[in-house]
Amino acid sequence: MLNEDRKMKLKLLVRDLIRIKSLSGEEGELVKYLEKAMEFFSFQFIDIDKVGNIVGGIKGKKPGKKVLLDAHLDTVPAEDKENWERDPFIGEIGDDKIFGRGASDMKGSIAAMLCAIAFFREDYGEEFSGEIYFSGTILEEFLEGVAARKVSEKVNPDWVIIGEASDLKINIGQRGRAEVVLETFGRPAHSSHPQFGHNAVYDMLRIIERINTFRPSQHPLLGEGILELTDIISEPYPGTSVVHSYCRATFDRRILPGEDKETIFGQIEEILAGVDVLELGFSIPVLERPTWRGSTLIAEQFLLPWMIERDHPLVMLAREGLGKQGLDSELGHYSFCTNGSHYAGEENIPTIGFGPSRENLAHIDNEYIEIEQLELGCRGYYGLLQSLCKTD
To answer: What is the CATH number for 45?
Structure first.
């Protein structure tokens, strides 16, 4: 399936993708490049939606499932270039690796997906079942699953494959995520006479101490539903000679299957019952981010968990497809959030994850993807398409 010519096309595509900077909200140049690449690969359907996602697809002659291969286009910054041994936006190839920002998260997967679809079309033409789509979504690093809502409206897929790095395992789930903001309100006073005020920071410290007694729920595969402090601020700031009248703490709550907003708020109310504070509020914040097309994505910071059964037909066929390409079909799960929070969590579309490279290579200085992983990932996607879009 992967001859030397195809391997070279795959590596050069990754290099080209790395060379195009695509920070969150700045994915436009990459979208235009992918549009041209899809035209070159003879995709039958190409669409750039109003928020800036790109979707392309091919259709078989026989009826079957709509299969969506999903990847996000945005990357985190590479601001500390002095910490990089190679330029993060050159895509240098060496030592059996390709280096650069986004190599693992997730331009390697984008290239492997597009090449797999292109090679599949070269080999089978339209002699397969169903429809195959690739989606390149925007702003995932800030708003996982939000832009993907537009993709599922357009494609209405039957099955989804998330291309986030899985070390070539079939990932069958992930925890969700909520940002929980707790606020305490006091009374200002001069710090030389604190008795005339009420310090909101001391109230928050009592709350944090109580939250540290929280024992998270457990899931046998996905792990703990943690509640971890990630940020704390007080006002006024700087607080010279003043008793603070406001304090805000943000917690990361990892959500397990069966948990929802009511579960989370109920737990917090139970944890904080009887804590002596002047005034307390808690909420899940809403984040707004501009898109490269000039629109704005707005979403509550609450992402659903998801899981698919080990014996679901999608999982069984995926294992069969990887086997056709000589790959193992070990099952795993993501430790972070993905667009699966929308496809599987919100829309209940059967979803798996499969991608080259490893989770711990995302967002690091000197990011890279191993060429062996890249090639195996492309073969894996090809095998998945063979199995999910029957060719016999």
So the answer is: 3.40.630.10
